[in-house]
Design brief:
The protein is 45% helix and 14% strand. The protein is an alpha+beta fold and 175 residues long. Helix 2 packs across helix 5 and helix 3 runs antiparallel to helix 6.
Length: 175
């Protein structure tokens, strides 16, 4: 797929078939996330991949009962590693760069999943401490969860704001 086609095909999918995600596809998603840019190339994040139904259901519960998280055959949890970034960048690294690193990696993973014919949705509404309990770490900060699988729904595109409402500065105006 062309990059812009990948972007246009991405949807927030909240219903998944029981079909298992192939290991080769998961590996490609992991490689995409690993290639994401990061501050100082520190890659100040960790990603937890869960296929175990009990763990996925615990994540769904931690996300205020968003049951589709448990329904998806895989759930990735992207966590910032503030201490890793703080070693080089201090407070700004701890409070910002590690979060940026984790979200960029999650974005790359999301787009890779779409390219591979899979579906996902960005989940940010969860109880951090409960997710930390599932991943087994209090030092990492959960930033996003990505349930991944084969869609059993095809959501329509959502409306987007006009480019002129979002972008400012010296740029060519569109007609």
């Amino acid at each position: 797929m062309d990059f812009f086609e990948i972007i246009s095909r991405r949807r927030s999918v909240r219903s998944y078939s029981a079909r298992t995600v192939e290991e080769t596809k998961l590996k490609r998603i992991f490689e995409a996330a690993n290639s994401a840019p990061s501050a100082g190339n520190l890659q100040a994040y960790r990603v937890f991949a869960f296929t175990d139904p009990l763990k996925r259901n615990a994540l769904a519960s931690a996300a205020f009962d968003q049951q589709f998280i448990g329904q998806a055959p895989v759930c990735l949890v992207f966590c910032a590693d503030p201490a890793r970034s703080a070693e080089k960048y201090g407070q700004r690294g701890s409070g910002l760069y590690s979060l940026q690193d984790a979200t960029i990696a999650a974005s790359f993973a999301m787009l890779a999943a779409v390219d591979l014919g899979l579906a996902t949705v960005w989940v940010g509404d969860f109880d951090e401490s409960r997710v930390q309990a599932v991943i087994g770490s209090e030092s990492l900060r959960p930033v996003a969860m990505l349930p991944i699988g084969y869609a059993s729904e095809e959501p329509e595109p959502t409306a987007r704001r006009a480019i002129e409402e979002i972008f400012a500065g010296d740029f060519p105006q569109t007609d």
